[in-house]
Amino acid sequence: MIHDNKPQKKISVLLVDDHPMVQGGLSACLAYYDDIEVIGVAHDGKDALNKAKELKPNVILMDVSMPLMNGIDATEIITEQLPDTKVLIFTMHNSSEFVHSAIQAGASGYVLKDTSSEEVYFAIKAVTKGNTHFSSSIAKMLQESPLKMENDKLTTREQVILSFVAQGFSSKDIAKKLDISFRTVEAHRRNIKAKLNIESLADLVRFAINHGLINKEGE
Fold first, then answer.
1. Are 201 and 162 in contact (CB under 8 A)?
2. Are residues 101 and 172 in the same domain?
3. pLDDT at residue 147 above 90?
4. Within this chain, do residues 89 and 48 fall inside the same structural domain, yes or no?
5. I want to staple 63 with a disulfide (CB 3.0 to 4.6 A). Which of 4, 17, 141, 172 is the partner?
6. Residue 119's Cα: distance from chain center in Å?
7. Domain containing residue 199: CATH number
8. Do 196 and 113 sit in the same domain of this protein?
């Protein structure tokens, strides 16, 4: 009988949280598992973007409330630019607004900070395999208040881009502001027009004003 003695490839994880104690605690907990390797830490959304592009982790454990760029916006950009990297939200926020925004941004799971290290481990394993994982209270919330996916509902990123379009920024300017590609911005603009059934810039501006998006910030 032939035994395969090749070492098992570890799941690489990037920790994103602006509290050093949380990072330290998570690192210590995950160090217990032989198939998990923390390959880096980041302290805010913008730092997370840079580290994600550099390290290309399998999974990112992402906090929500952070300076410079929040975890929801960072998640949306990372899932656009690094489709092979899974984002697992790890936060104390348990409101449906945050949960729905995270899912729309492309997060593969949502775990609360009061959960056990064992559940965090199983969540990381689940999203690595292409599955989702939600803390039990979050899963119950989603059952009671499912995410509405109407065709005319814009994602958080589309709302931000529409606000910039309404303010007169070009696709090139928007791409630079949001640190995404020009082609991604153009794709979003097409999706926005299709969802709203609007073609003219004047009507897009009118929609943005009527829905309070004209002052929406991208960062």
1. no
2. no
3. no
4. yes
5. 17
6. 20
7. 1.10.10.10
8. no
Whole-number Å distance between alpha carbons of 130 and 116: 22
Per-residue confidence (pLDDT) for residue 184, from 0 to 100: 85
Whether residue 71 contacts residue 91, with contact meaning beta carbons closer than 8 Å, is answered with yes
Q: Are 157 and 188 in contact (CB under 8 A)?
A: yes
Q: Is there a domain that residue 101 lies in?
A: yes
Say if residue 116 is in the same domain as residue 168. Answer: no
Rounded-to-integer distance, Cα 107 and Cα 63, Å: 12
**By the 8 A CB rule, do 164 and 177 touch?**
yes
pLDDT digits (tens, 9 = 90+) for 38-51: 999 999 999 999 99
- pTM of the shown model: 0.68
Tell the residue number behind the tokens 């929406």, with chain if given.
Answer: 216
Residue 44 gets which letter from DSSP?
Answer: S
Residue type, 167: Q
User: Does residue 179 form part of some domain?
Assistant: yes
pLDDT, tens digit (0-9, with 9 covering 90-100), for 23-70: 888 999 999 999 999 999 999 999 999 999 999 999 999 999 888 888
By the 8 A CB rule, do 98 and 91 touch? yes
The C-alpha atoms of residue 164 and residue 205 are separated, in whole angstroms, by: 10
Measured in degrees and rounded to the nearest 5, phi and psi for residue 81 equal -90, -30
My answer on whether 111 and 185 are in the same domain is no
Same domain membership, residue 38 and residue 120:
yes
